[in-house]
Amino acid sequence: MTLSFGFDLSLAVLTLAVAGYAIGARESFASVVAFISYGVLLALVWVRLSAVDVALTEAAIGSGVTGALLIGAAAKVGEGAVDAPRSVRGAGRLLTALFCIATTLGIATAFLSLPEKAPTLAPLAAEHLPSTGLGNPVTAVLLSYRAIDTLLESVVLVFAVVGVWTFASDRDWGGRPESPGKDRPEQPLTFLGQILPPLGILVGVHLVWTGATEPGGAFQGGTVLAAAWILVMAAGLRKPPSIEGAWLRFALIGGPALFLGVGVAGFALAKAFLAYPEGHSKAFILVIEAALTFSIAIALGLLALGAPGRKGHP
Amino acid sequence: MTLAIDAFTILCVCGGLFFFLTGAIALLRFPDTLTRLHALTKADSLGLGLIVLGLLPQCDGFLAAAKLILIWAIAQLGGATLSQLIARIAAIENSKP
């Protein structure tokens, strides 16, 4: 008892310390590294709270994908591609700090004003779990009870990619994004890019498949697949795709489109939007998850690549 | 029998923790990038290796054990590649006047 309390206490202190360092670090690169460590520590916190699904998502998206995006951003800022006047930077920092403090205070107030026995839908979710054919209540919430949220999330990812693409200049439109690696990648990286992706695909598919009964799911699996794709491109084994490619655009919208199609078909099959026919929920959910995973992987990979353009022409 | 297995686990995990601790101290104390990398790779390979070795007899089933070994193997691969990449950059930086 005391041992696990000691572990939790040191974990909490360490998480807060790393968070503080991420905010306070002078160099943006050091700050990003601290942010990634913070994400990993936060994942451990979620594990300690028995929220393994959240932990996986935090590690994959909060720490992994966001970390990769921030490293790219830090490298660009370091090159002097983005430079605001000192006064603007100061005001921006002040506003950001105020906004963050207000958000933290808001969450703290909401948390502290919760009634002693917090309202929960958990028993209700567990009670109806057998009707979905699933074993993991989190997946049941994401793809059955509250499927509309997940549908909108998957559509938001498509919009995010379109938003990133709008940063391309007219001249670069339809071209390829810059490769995430160097022009001549180091040999060890090429080796890793050859040997790791098959394992990444295996782990990604496993995370989706196991998500029906145990922690895992489309977002976590899709992130692992995206990471394998980015590694292959960083190692110089494949070029980033042209954003005009028909297959690419189809792959990007395929998952959300299938999800939406099943949702509309629900009117005919089960008399409600996003309702699955009685007794066939699990099959529908697995097909949707498979398509979503693929689209999420493509979307996250494209987000990490950024807008099409060439080196030296931001 | 269980006592012997538990003793083996405790011994191996403590050994692994020792390597992680010395690796962390060396990371803070060693003078330059290459020596620090040297210290880190010891922690990664031996530290994680011993912890995985110690946890193997505690696994229920072959699949769980195989997953642990796979995690160790991936960490080896990632660690070795990353230290190569960092060492190359350090070598380039060092050769600059």
Provide the descriptors you would attach to this structure in a database record:
heterodimer; A: 314 residues; mainly alpha; 12 helices; 0% strand; B: 97 residues; 3 helices; 88% helix; elongated
Q: Give the termini separation of chain A.
A: 55 Å
Please indicate the percent range of residues of chain A in DSSP E strands (runs of 2 or more): under 5%
Low-confidence stretches of chain A: none
Strand fraction band of chain B?
A: under 5%
Separation of the first and last Cα atoms of chain B:
62 Å
Percentage of residues in helical conformation of chain A: over 70%
Major sheet of chain A: none
How many runs of DSSP E, i.e. beta strands of chain B? 0
Shape of chain B: elongated
Mean of residue pLDDT of chain A?
A: 85
SSE string of chain A, helices as H and strands as E: HHHHHHHHHHHH
Most residues in contact, chain pair and counts: A-B, 8 and 9 residues
List the domain count of chain B as a whole number.
Answer: 1
Please give the count of helices of chain A: 12
Quickly give the structural class of chain B.
Answer: mainly alpha
